[in-house]
Design a protein that fits this description.
Elements: H1 2-9, H2 21-34, H3 40-56, H4 60-77, H5 83-98, H6 104-114, H7 120-136, H8 140-154, H9 160-176, H10 180-198, H11 203-219, H12 222-239
Helix pairs in contact: 1-2, 2-3, 3-4, 3-5, 4-5, 5-6, 5-7, 6-7, 7-8, 7-9, 8-9, 9-10, 10-11, 11-12
Amino acid sequence: FMMTAFTQAAPASPREAPPRITDVVQEAIRHARADARMEPGVRTELLTRLGMVLREQGALKEAADVLEWTFAQARGQLGDDDALTLAAELQRVWVAVEAQEGGARERVDRLLAHVPDDLVAMRSSALVQSSTIATQERDFARALHDADHALGLARTQDDLHVLGEALGSAFQVRYSSNDLHGALAIGEELLAVSRAEYGAQHWRVAVVHDSLSRVQRRLGDLDTAEFHARAALDIDDAVLKP
């Protein structure tokens, strides 16, 4: 299926540049939605993952469209409490939070009400989104509760990505609520986890260096703040376009 999608995205006539990732993904989405022979669970998982790629590429509207369709189809074909339905809903929640949509709080609360305790990584990720919303609403008590709950769950999983998500949430709520020493401790652990997951030269690692620079600057340690700022710039220079 994916090879067909890549083939369909190849240029049939001269064009200025090769197809972008989003071009290939949109072509794959079109085929997946149109293929009547595809098993519903396979379609749900495939479209959820493709929607996630669109979200990570910053195409939030397109991601919201495909994930909303996928979630609705999964509810009808697989049921509200199926793990694949919940995974589609989780990705839709991510988009709603990143786009700061109205109704994001209702979406994440509904998801948390349905995710069973044994889906630990999914529950941790949903709590991360709940904490982000609470931080945006300046409800720091709930934000801290949800972030720390997510982090506790993430620590039980052998998954650097889930742990990094939870650490990022715990860092953000502490920084936003002016708990700078707490943010510093979490941020240093997040830096180690990010390096382990992505390697030293990755823009996500640069983001953590930047965050630590802001904390150290506010704490008055300007030498360490400069060290982290320069580390972020060195990575950016190496991996990003000018």
